[in-house]
Design goal:
Layout (H helix, E strand, L loop, with lengths): L24 H10 L16 H11 L3 H14 L5 H17 L2 H21 L5 H20 L3 H21 L4 H14 L7 H6 L7 H17 L6 H15 L3 H9 L9 H13 L3 H9 L12 H12 L6 H10 L6 H14 L3 H13 L6 H12 L5 H11 L3 H9 L9 H16 L3 H15 L6 H15 L3 H13 L6 H16 L1
C-alpha cells in the first residue's frame, strides 16, 4: 500500500500546469493494469544535488549562466532522471527577470515555469524532501518576479501555495534545513505586511508568524550550515538573515556585520557585490560600497547587471563627488528594462546642480519627463519633481545626500550654519526633518527627538513623507532606549499618517516595530 501524499502548492515560484504528454486513455489504463504496484516507485524521477548540479547552482549564483547551462546539459545527458535541473533553471529565470525586467521575457518564462512545475509534480518522487520544497522554492522566486512586474494578486497566490507546500514538507521531513530557510523568511515577514495589502494576507490562509519566530528558524539553519560544509544554501541563508536584520529588526550594525562575515566574494561575483553594496549603502558604509562596486567583476562570462552602475553613481553622488554622472549614463545606455530610468535622469540633474550647472539640471529633467515609467516610487517622485519645474533647494539636497551616505557630521555642519527662518513652506518642514535625521545619525537622540516632533507638528497634514518618517524614527529611538510605551505610541502615530510618498514602506516598518515590541 502506498501512503497517499497530498501535493500542496505554496513555496513553488512557478504556477499553471501545461501537460506535454497527452497519452490516450486506453493506453494509460493498460499501462496501469500491466505495471506491478511494487514497481511503481521505480518510475519516479529523483532530485539529487550531484557535484555537477552543485557546480551549476554556484555558477548561476555567480551570474555565469552560460557555464551553468553547459553543466545542466551534462546532467541531462549523464543523469536524465534528475529533476533538480528544473530548480537550477528556475534560478536562472528568476535572476534574468529581476535584473533585466523585460516584459517579453516575463511572458515567455511564465510558460517555462508552468511546464517545469507540471513536470516535477507528475514525475517527481514524493518520498524525497526536495519534491515539495523545489515546487515551493520555485513559487517563492516567482512571487518576487511577479511583484517586480506589478502582479500583486499573482504574487500573493504564489506565496500562499508555496507556504502550504512548505508546511506539508515540514510535517513529512521536520529536519530538512532548506525548508526552514524559506519558512523562516515567510514567518518573519507576514506580520509586517502593510494594511493596504491586507487583502493579500487573506489569500495566505494559515500563514502566521513573527519576526522572532522567523529569525530563530533562519539562525537554526545558519548553525546547521556552520557544522555542515556541504550545505548548499549556506550563503543564500546568510543573505536572507542580513536582510532580515536590516529591514525587519532595524539592526543596521548587526546586518553589516552579518553580511561582512558571510564569506561572500564581491570581487569575483557580481551578485555578491550587489548584496554587500546594497547593505553597505543602507547602513552608512558608503565609502565601503564605492570600493566594492569599483572592484566588481566584469566581462562577457557574467550576465550583464547594469544596476551596479546606477548604484555606483548613487554612492558617489551621496559623497558629493563631481563625477557620478558617467555611471548613471552607463546605466541608461546598458539597461533595457522599466525601472530607475526617470530616477537616473533625476540623479543626473542633481549632479548638475551640485556642480553649479542649472541649465543642465533642466535639460536632464526634461529627459526625465519623456523617458521611462513612473510606476515605482522613486521614478514617480522623479517624474513629479520634473513636472513641477522647480529644482530642489541646494542646501537641503546636499544634506539629504550626505545623510543617505552616512556622512552625518558633514551634513549637520552644512545645515546648522543656516537658520530655519531662511526656509519657508515645505522647505522649512524639510529643514527640521533633515536636521533630525542627521542628529539621529550622530546619536544625539534627545535633539533628534525634538526636531522630529517639530516635523510632525508642522507636517502631519502634508502630502510629503517627512512627518510620517519622523514618527517612525522617534519609535526607533524610543525602542532602542527601551521605552516601549513611547515607542508604541510613535509607531502608531506613523501608521495614522497618510502621506502620498513612501506610505507603504514606512507603514511596513512601523508594523515591524510594533511586532518587535510584542515579541
Amino acid at each position: 500500500m502506498h501512503k497517499k501524499i497530498t501535493i500542496p502548492a505554496f513555496l513553488c515560484h512557478r504556477r499553471t500546469l501545461n501537460s506535454l504528454i497527452f497519452t490516450p486513455l486506453v493506453l494509460s489504463l493498460a499501462l496501469l493494469l500491466l505495471t506491478p504496484l511494487s514497481g511503481h516507485a521505480d518510475s519516479y524521477k529523483h532530485f539529487r544535488y550531484s557535484p555537477d548540479a552543485r557546480s551549476a547552482y554556484q555558477k548561476v549564483t555567480q551570474l555565469r549562466f552560460g557555464e551553468a547551462y553547459m553543466l545542466l546539459a551534462q546532467i541531462r545527458m549523464n543523469d536524465p532522471d534528475n529533476l533538480i535541473v528544473h530548480h537550477i533553471e528556475n534560478y536562472i529565470d528568476f535572476f534574468t527577470l529581476y535584473i533585466d525586467e523585460k516584459d517579453a521575457d516575463y511572458e515567455r518564462l511564465k510558460k517555462k515555469r508552468d511546464w517545469r512545475l507540471d513536470k516535477i509534480k507528475q514525475t517527481g518522487d514524493p518520498a524525497s524532501p526536495y519534491y515539495l520544497f523545489v515546487q515551493a522554492d520555485i513559487r517563492l522566486q516567482w512571487a518576487l518576479a511577479r511583484l517586480r512586474f506589478d502582479d500583486y494578486l499573482g504574487a500573493f497566490t504564489e506565496v500562499s501555495k508555496a507556504y502550504k507546500l512548505l508546511r506539508e514538507n515540514e510535517t513529512l521531513f521536520p529536519d530538512f534545513m532548506p525548508n526552514k530557510k524559506d519558512l523562516g523568511i515567510l514567518h518573519a515577514m507576514v506580520g509586517t505586511i502593510p494594511d493596504s495589502y491586507r487583502w493579500g494576507v487573506k489569500l495566505l490562509g494559515g500563514l502566521e508568524g513573527t519576526i522572532e519566530e522567523g529569525r530563530k528558524e533562519i539562525e537554526e539553519v545558519l548553525r546547521y550550515a556552520g557544522r555542515n560544509d556541504e550545505f548548499l544554501f549556506a550563503q543564500e541563508t546568510a543573505v536572507l538573515y542580513a536582510f532580515l536584520l536590516l529591514h525587519l529588526e532595524n539592526e543596521e550594525t548587526a546586518a553589516w556585520k552579518a553580511i561582512s562575515n558571510a564569506g561572500l566574494q564581491p570581487a569575483q561575483n557580481p551578485l555578491h557585490c550587489f548584496v554587500m553594496a546594497n547593505i553597505a549603502m543602507r547602513t552608512g558604509q558608503n565609502d565601503a560600497a564605492i570600493k566594492l562596486l569599483r572592484q566588481r567583476p566584469k566581462g562577457t562570462a557574467y550576465h550583464n547587471f547594469p544596476y551596479l552602475e546606477y548604484m555606483l553613481g548613487l554612492a558617489k553622488l551621496r559623497r558629493l563627488d563631481d563625477d557620478a554622472a558617467p555611471h548613471f549614463k552607463a546605466y541608461l545606455q546598458q539597461y533595457t528594462g522599466r525601472n530607475f530610468i526617470k530616477e537616473a535622469y533625476q540623479k543626473l540633474g542633481w549632479q548638475a546642480l551640485i556642480n553649479g550647472n542649472r541649465a543642465a539640471y533642466f535639460q536632464y529633467m526634461g529627459e526625465c519627463l519623456m523617458k521611462g515609467e513612473d510606476k515605482a516610487g522613486g521614478d514617480k517622485h522623479a517624474q513629479e519633481e520634473a513636472a513641477s519645474g522647480t529644482p530642489p533647494n541646494l542646501s537641503l539636497l546636499k544634506a539629504r545626500l550626505l545623510f543617505d551616505g552616512g556622512y552625518y557630521h558633514d551634513g549637520y555642519e552644512l545645515l546648522v550654519r543656516q537658520s530655519a527662518h531662511r526656509f519657508s513652506g515645505e522647505h522649512e518642514l524639510e529643514y527640521y526633518y533633515r536636521l533630525g535625521r542627521l542628529l539621529h545619525g550622530m546619536k544625539r537622540y534627545d535633539e533628534a527627538l525634538q526636531r522630529y516632533q517639530v516635523t510632525i507638528d508642522k507636517g502631519a497634514d502634508s502630502p510629503r513623507f517627512f512627518a510620517c518618517n519622523a514618527a517612525l524614527q522617534m519609535g526607533a529611538i524610543y525602542e532602542k532606549q527601551g521605552q516601549k510605551p513611547q515607542a508604541r505610541q510613535a509607531y502608531e502615530r506613523c501608521l495614522s499618517l497618510k502621506p502620498e510618498e513612501y506610505r507603504t514602506g514606512l507603514h511596513q516598518k512601523a508594523k515591524a516595530g510594533l511586532t518587535r515590541l510584542d515579541d
